[in-house]
Amino acid sequence: MNLLRVGLLSLSLYVTRAWSQSPQEALSYVSAALSEAQFTTLKHPAFPKHGVRIKKTKFCDGTVDSYTGYIDVGARHLFFYFFESRSDPDKDDVILWTNGGPGGSSALGLFMEQGESLPGRRMPTRRNTTPNLGTPKPTCFSFDQPVGVGWSYADFGEHVGTTEEGAKDIAAFVAVFFEHFHKFKGRAFHLSGESYGGRYIPVYAAAVYDQNKELLKKGLTPINLNSVMIGNGYTDFYTMMLSYYDMVCTPATVPPVLDIQTCIRMKQVLPRCEKWVKQACIDIFDEFSCQAATSFCSEELEEPLILSGLNPYDITVECEGEIEDTICYPITKAIVQYLSRHDIRKLIGAEHDMKSNFSATYHYISNLLDRGVRVLIYVGVNDFGCNHVGNEKWTSALEWSGQDGYRAQLLREWSVNGKKAGKVRSYGGLSFVTVDGAGHMVPYDKPAESLELVNRWMAGEDI
């Protein structure tokens, strides 16, 4: 098991070709009259290489306007879901969400973490079901990326080589979509994700921000990029690696969970990993040496927890099922089976059967903050792979114009309904928040607290 290479264990949902192409209509500069029976294709002359195929659907919640479709970039096709706000779709903010992996379908976030209508009605997904959570405020995008994940596919095996390259496709998609759906123009737009989303989201946000200059030159409406939200993110792999010992061998969250002999060995190997990984992977990148370093450190610092039988996403509980098969959450298999049903694929227009199966980005965070884009880093304290110790370290060390003011702030408690929910440090546009009692998937473990956190953040209120 190598969390250092993949960022985080995640269920990857892969696809097999199964064509069922619907008729398409090319539109430009006008809002589309969308059908439930077939896709409509949205095009824009400013983005000749990009198209958006979209259809209405009553998938999951028939009380809100919802859509599914594909972002088409040549022979590459990224699948997305789009749900308008249940509160005030004509005014509420817009959020784009992605899971991590890398290679983790956002279907996991869609069914296990987002909105009470999606889990409970079709299948029992939440471990802690909390009725009457309140109404989620934003309109939400959720998409499967990169190509080869979930229902996203390529015609001839094409793929995107880097996150930076893929970010341009996402930025173009948002621009094309907003040009057609005029009512969303100028809305506050937030990019959010978890896990390896800590790598994706800062890069995507930078692409959206930089693209705005080109939109203005062409007389188009820029995207109102308001903030970035990252949950249990894998933004700085080096700092995260060095924090694994703290999570399992010190009372950083709970009393030490590994035996003394194992912890002594981990402590002894830490200096070697700190030096070797820095030299081979950061200072002067050497592919073979970096691979050797991360493999060694993964075996010494990560494998002991995996072998213990504990859930690496929540070290307070045992792993349920085989970690490679269910990521310790058996409900993930039920999600794959549900989404593989022919009637569900037909409902949302998916063209495939579904099967189950390292660069730091903190510099992007610095540049976004210095350009007025707010950043929320929230972390469930029971997670091992993308833990609160490492996330607090890199946010405190982050170089940006507000660094001194941020570091001068003390961690304080934040609460929901008068009950402590975690701790927060905030200054300028940067907020670091912990969520007590939550593991890697905060909205799954603590739905009420995470909903309140996001609503306060989008409203610009103190957490």
Automatic annotation (TrEMBL):
Enzyme class at the top of the EC tree: hydrolase
Pfam families from the UniProt entry: Peptidase_S10
Swiss-Prot/TrEMBL GO biological process terms: proteolysis
Any one GO MF annotation of this record: serine-type carboxypeptidase activity
GO CC annotation terms, alphabetical: fungal-type vacuole
EC number annotated for this UniProt entry: 3.4.16.-
Keyword terms of this UniProt record: Carboxypeptidase, Glycoprotein, Hydrolase, Protease, Signal
Family, per entry: Belongs to the peptidase S10 family.
Protein name according to UniProt: Carboxypeptidase
